[in-house]
Amino acid sequence: MLMEYLLAGLGQLFTFENILLMSIGVVIGLFVGAMPGLTVTLGVALVLPFTFGLDSLSGIILLTGVYCAGTYAGAITAILINTPGTPSSVTTAWDGYPLTNQGQASGALRIALYSSVIGGLISGIFLMLFAPPQIAKIALQFGPPEMFTLTFLGLTVIARVSGTSPPIKGLISAAFGLLFASVGIDLVSGVSRFNFGMNFLNAGLNIIPACIGLFAIAEVFYQIERRRKIFIQDMPDHSDTPSNVSWKDLFKHKLLLLKSSIIGVGVGAIPGTGGSVASFIAYDEAKRTSKKPELFGKGSYEGIIASESSNNGITGGSLIPTFTLGIPGTSSAAIFLGALMIHGLTPGPDLFRFQGELIYTVFIGFFIINIIMLFLGFFASKWAINILKIPNSILYPVILAFCIIGGYAIIGTLTGVGVSLFFGVIGYLMLKNGYPPAPMVIALILGPKVEESLRQSLILSSGDISIFFTRPISVLFIIIVVLTTVLPLIRGKKLLNFFRKRK
């Protein structure tokens, strides 16, 4: 039965109209994902009305193209100008931008593209093989205790992303991030916190304008003060072409690629998590197991591989509960859910029973879209690298203009612009005084989810913390937290004792 569906799907997809639609979706996704403030979710939402006049298959594969390409494209601006196009590409900027300053922008762009495509293809395999309802129901086992331990695992990354800064500065940065994350109406009690009489703060501080400020605006302010070029006008010849990195270089890290992709798929299948959690966990795991952890944050291809393969692993993983249970894994997947219903398709077990051929055709389209993204992404990154040749006197104002437009676009009011500029000033002061912005971003993204799931768990247990130690999945994450936190300390202590003995 499965082979019949696959063969029929191939026949339907390889038509001029459907190949064109998938390509258009990828182009839109590349543009939207690379523009600061224009999120993947926004791109999918804007394209959704254009699917009304299409048949079910054509409409869904168009949205899939936007989703997959938009998830990758955030890496382009993250690498070139330290401006993550999406929150999940924050970790890509940590190593991609230093590589740009080292004249290796084209290599970083190419390794990001390859990793994204492989991560997407691996997630497509899981989507096809593990989408049956009985497998997807595992996602329903995640209640507040499981969500708390999972997101808390993401927070433990803070201790290892301070770069060359003293750990205390990283912890101070994270503490302020948690403070900023608590601004707005408390979702549990409904009480306004830290709004200082300004009603627009009741909605909280949106993470995308905050990232734009902390990374892009702060970096521009900082480099203008130093009067130093951060964008390379006369790049070495080997950086002008992407030929310095090949598939062979990528597959030297095949285990990291597979592991990070699976992390993305697993986190994506859990409703309400998102790509940011996956990228933080995958990045930290890559650094923990790397033979050269000292390069992370200074220009490591391993960091980019982990970040991008986990980001695109999210795409297929998030669609597993969407198609089988009607529970979207991400906000973009929620729009997919609406698209299915608009086209008369009801997610659940009956979708595979009565519309199996259509769904498996979409799954095959998922693979084809990633292949199309490989070719179009290659040309997009080759064109984008020309940004580095623009004189700073022109590029700085253009970047600031895009940052302001992006801050406005995500919220639709000047509040987003204000948040971007506010965090731009904070980020500038942090850079000037040696405080890393990465821990603050992690705390901003994960803080609300950690607090919400913790309080929900304690409400369920009437304040009894044993709820975290009596549920198997929660216990598993606690064990991982302990191992990833304690083992490096023990290993470092043994190494220190070894050198003391040698002396």
UniProtKB/TrEMBL annotation:
The transmembrane residues are 20-48, 60-81, 111-131, 138-159, 171-191, 203-224, 262-283, 325-346, 358-378, 398-431, 468-490
Keywords noted in UniProt: Membrane, Transmembrane, Transmembrane helix
Q: Which InterPro entries match?
A: DUF112_TM (IPR002823)
Residue ranges of every copy of the DUF112 domain listed in the record: 19-442
Q: What is this protein called?
A: Tricarboxylate transport membrane protein TctA
**Gene source species:** Gracilibacillus boraciitolerans JCM 21714
